[in-house]
Specification:
GO molecular function: kinase activity
Strand content: 5-15%
Radius of gyration: 21 Å
Structural class: alpha/beta
Number of helices: 15
Number of domains: 2
Strand order of the largest sheet: 5-4-6-7
Keywords: Kinase, Transferase
Helix content: 40-55%
Order of helices and strands: EHHHEHEHHHHEHHEHHHEHEH
Low-confidence stretches: none
Distance between the termini: 55 Å
CATH topology of the largest domain: Rossmann fold
Mean pLDDT: 90
Number of strands: 7
CATH architecture of the largest domain: 3-Layer(aba) Sandwich
Shape: globular
Length: 366
């Protein structure tokens, strides 16, 4: 059994660590690229979400490298993510690829089935071993998420240009060559210490922008054209409202116990959205309100073309902007998105934010 999985940000690193600890062979999907997107777009339904197309491209590239088993998380509710596995299964079957697709969903009542699937991909029924490897992977994921957050926050302030980029890219290369969670944890702890020692000029006049939206397009830099780095280069401090570490903790632990770690976000969204409408739409609304309360200069909403939950959230943005006095830019992304036009919209939005900051009398002008 050779396992592969979708490529979303740097999540492949802790997944690799987990399977390394379990002694399971993995095929890491190549980084998302134009080729990945073209492959997925060629065989996926035309109007399906961009993440499905990229994921399908991931699988096809991994199958070429020998993968025979695909592991994907599941979902439910008014979002097409819950259908991904079945749609992709049929597409791959039509293409003549005999691969096993294993869907891992939050164990809402059926814990036996959840652990049966986990045991299948873990090549062991030793719950203690599985739990330990999963715990180590989550620790790595959270450390990696923390480092990514620091990079997006500190990069506009660095005194020596590219010092943070060099540290971060060097770390990723080391992690990719590492085997097992112990080695990866060592490199991550070292990098977290080193990044805190990088000299910063905190006196710089830097804007603060929050990124909200559909989780895949927020996290996967290929899909969002590396928006975090682009904004940093414009002198903008960036914070992403979603991370895979928080999502996994929420879905696998809190939700399975009937709890949630997102009450504060839901409460902030309550005047506009009182219930889950699929995907991360409620979180998009709630985090936009919270960013306003935290004094951010603006918010950027990212979503794939035809993403139904985010379209609903986008329709609420004019009211949220007016009532919370925070500008919001909504960017819809698909395989036809051109970088030049995308960059022009970003630059115009940042100019607007700077003008508002420098001219307080225009603070109400959105």
């Amino acid at each position: 059994m050779k396992i592969t999985f979708p490529h979303i940000g740097n999540t492949y690193i802790p997944i690799k660590a987990m399977f390394d600890d379990l002694g399971v062979e993995t095929v890491i999907p190549p980084r998302c690229s134009k080729k990945t997107l073209e492959l997925g777009t060629k065989y996926a339904p035309e109007l399906i979400c961009l993440p499905l197309k990229i994921n399908l491209g991931n699988y096809l590239e991994s199958i070429e490298k020998g993968a025979d088993t695909i592991v994907i998380t599941g979902g439910c509710g008014p979002c097409r993510f819950g259908y991904y596995s079945e749609v992709q299964r049929e597409i791959l079957k039509d293409l003549g690829h005999d691969v096993d697709i294993i869907v891992l969903e939050a164990p809402q009542g059926d814990k036996k089935e959840f652990f049966r699937r986990v045991s299948k991909i873990s090549n062991t029924k030793n719950i203690i071993k599985i739990t330990k490897s999963l715990k180590n992977a989550i620790v790595i994921l959270k450390k990696l998420n923390k480092l990514e957050e620091i990079v997006l926050k500190n990069r506009p302030y660095e005194i020596n240009k590219n010092e943070i980029n060099n540290l971060y890219s060097g770390l990723i290369k080391k992690l990719e060559k590492s085997t097992g969670s112990k080695e990866m944890t060592y490199y991550l702890n070292k990098a977290l210490k080193e990044i805190d020692e990088i000299p910063l000029d905190k006196n710089r006049d830097v804007l603060k922008v929050g990124i909200v939206g559909e989780i895949y397009t927020v996290i996967e830099d290929f899909s969002n054209l590396d928006i975090g780095k682009k904004l940093n280069e414009m002198g903008v401090e960036v914070h992403k409202s979603l991370s895979t570490g928080e999502w996994i903790t929420e879905m696998l632990f809190y939700r399975s116990l009937g709890l949630s770690n997102e009450r504060k976000i839901w409460n902030a969204a309550d005047p506009y959205v009182k219930t889950c409408i699929g995907g991360h739409a409620r979180e998009t609304v709630g985090n936009t309100v919270l960013y306003s309360q935290k004094g951010y200069d603006g918010v950027i909403q990212l979503m794939p073309f035809t993403c139904m939950p985010e379209i609903v959230a986008m329709s609420l943005m004019p009211s949220i902007q007016a009532e919370n006095n925070i500008p919001v830019l909504s960017l819809i992304i698909d395989e036809m998105t051109g970088e030049a036009g995308y960059l022009t919209r970003l630059e115009a939005f940042i100019d607007l934010l700077r003008n508002r900051k420098e001219n307080p009398k225009y603070n109400r002008a959105l």
